[in-house]
């Protein structure tokens, strides 16, 4: 079997260089990330005795992300993605809570990784409705606090619409009742710190105990790269497992995985140090400029609208009047576009690989489809 045959076999898949992917929260990694990842491909920080320098680099990276999120001496790890990070946060909160406390207060629009965490850890998610802004209703969250509450979760950049829950209010509730507050900023963690005036969601809020941030989304790193950051190193101690047969009995494991990619750490660290905060800010400014332009274009098309004014580079495109969303999505897909389908809107993620040219073409295709619908109805 030759590589060319494999390429041929997989050639029907979308790819980020092909300009057809409009619904993904991942993107083409930065060139420097790809180069670094390849160089450290065979490293495994699950065996720390072999790669002590990479372990140091991981601490360095977590410290830098902590500082970005207003924490001077954080704990945490580079993990496989947002799902693993969220599960680790819930695992930590459970280990720290009294045995009868097993309820988690969370938005009805939380990522499905929390359903997995609940199933794995024997937790109950108390899903709180959102308001007209698609953010968790903090009045209802407050009412839901009870004797069995183990944790509260806020989302900074929801999976569907990219909005930020009122984390400062959740922090107040958490502090008042001494409850663990986790923030899922898998998407927003590399976006909101670079948008002036965006909602606070980080460790500057006293209730926040841990934050999920994904380098493999807006961090421009390589899949699989996620991060769990803890306010203090002590918090993650409850995850600690001693591995006696590695590193002369000195190995400690605090993740779900055993074997763990050192290449993800090296590549994530490299992008951060190559781009710096200024590079990320520029990156976010570019996607936000394109997002604003796209939203205006969508609003100018009869039969289309946006679900909510975007707070970041995620846009929920909905239909108005008698346009059937499912019919529209079917026709969009026939044109070759890969969009993310939600019950009452299409999610467009204006990621760094998405160009204005492809959005112009996408909108032209939509206009043509809508004209066809109006002639044939
Ligand atoms: N949290 C949020 C808000 C997400 O949007 C996602 C993924 O889209 C995740 C967590 C899970 O991340 P991953 O797919 O890297 O496991």
Low-confidence stretches: none
Share of helical residues: 25-40%
Rough outline: globular
Oligomer description: single chain
* CATH class category of the largest domain: Alpha Beta
CATH architecture of the largest domain: 3-Layer(aba) Sandwich
The CATH homologous superfamily of the largest domain is called Type I PLP-dependent aspartate aminotransferase-like (Major domain)
Broad structural category:
alpha/beta
Total separate domains: 2
Q: Rg to the nearest angstrom?
A: 22 Å
Order of helices and strands: HHHEHEHEHEHEEEEEHEEHEEH
- Mind summarizing the main beta sheet? 7 strands, mixed
Share of β-strand residues: 15-25%
Number of helices: 10
Return the average pLDDT rounded to an integer. 96
